[in-house]
Amino acid sequence: MANWTDLIEELKRWAGAGQRPGLWWRDDDAVAPGPRLRQLTELSRTAGVALALAVIPGRAEDTLKEVLADLTGVKLLVHGLTHRNRAPADQKKAEFGGHRPVYEMLGDAAIAWENLAGRFPELALPIFVPPWNRIDADLLPRLPLARLQGLSRFGPRAAAYPAPGLLECNCHLDLIDWHGGRGFLGEAEALDKLIAHLQGRREGSADREESSGILSHHNVMDQAGWDFLAELFARTKECDGAHWLTIDEVFRLPQ
User: Fold this and answer.
1) Which of 195, 197, 187 is nearest to 231 (CA)?
2) What is the pLDDT of residues 51-92, one digit of tens each?
3) Which of 53, 49, 54 lies closest to 24 in space, CA to CA?
4) Residue 45 belongs to what H/E stretch?
5) Which helix (H) or strand (E) holds 10?
6) Looking at CB atoms within 10 Å, which of 78, 121, 135, 155 has the fewest?
7) SS3 content of the chain, % helix, strand, coil (to 5)
8) Is the pLDDT at 240 greater than 80, yes or no?
9) Considering only CA atoms, which of 33, 28, 138 is closest in space to residue 83?
């Protein structure tokens, strides 16, 4: 199992080739201010790492903007519409899965973007984060019709553009052990997953141009998860072997 030295060694291999791998940070399920969201924003502020906050438009409170007003680099992504499971009981959870008519889901995606952009015009980006990271393949080429230009799921992307006009940049390390008690995944396993993606990019088994994404969930994270995230930021910045990107740098969407 990996340790911090293994991560630094991987970053040194990148540096030996004259490169620094890009990393970025996404947090899901934001709806309202509270102690956990304040903890999240304070970590972003003290670590100097920009936050891409996936907000649920249909449940989000306008007061979110007050918490985020002075946070450098923060942007809001479209996290479904209501984050409601619409899948049959015998299928994996999804709000935008293949069990719904495509036209209906496209309408919801359009409403979600208009909702977020209308209320948070300075912060919202037209990047769709499907709840549970699941989305029907038939919906992808239609997302630009809802004025959405980006997609963020989980796992190495198969292509930079899964559909014309839709750029995909995913996360590759989820800090939560969803099937083992919903606590922190564990330092060794988390580092294993991050190093595996970095190594895959460096060696060519994963898309080298897809920045390595870290996924947190502030509403359910335990202290061990917060501690790992803070240490990850500190160690990667100390060694100068990685480049923490803003969401604008990750997606580089047309203006």
Assistant:
1) 187
2) 999 999 999 999 999 999 899 999 999 999 999 999 999 899
3) 49
4) helix 35-47
5) helix 4-16
6) 121
7) 40, 15, 45
8) no
9) 28
Residue 126, C-beta contacts closer than 8 angstroms, at least 6 positions apart: 78, 113, 117, 147, 148, 149, 150, 253
Secondary structure (3-state) at 42: helix
Residue 53, judged by CB atoms within 10 A of its CB (0-12, 13-18, 19+), counts as buried
Q: pTM of whole model > 0.85? A: yes
Give the whole-angstrom CA distance, residue 225 versus residue 218: 9
pLDDT at 1: 87
Question: Is the predicted pLDDT of residue 172 greater than 90, yes or no?
Answer: yes
**Whose CA is closest to 230, among 193, 192, 184?**
184
User: CB pairs under 8 A, 24+ apart, for 193-196?
Assistant: 194/7, 194/232, 195/2, 195/6, 195/7, 195/10
Residue type, 132: W
| pLDDT, averaged across the chain | 96
The whole-number average pLDDT for the span 35-45 is 97
3-state secondary structure of 35: helix
Q: If you average pLDDT over residues 176-194, what whole number do you get?
A: 94
Task: Report the C-alpha gap between 115 and 31 in whole angstroms.
Answer: 13
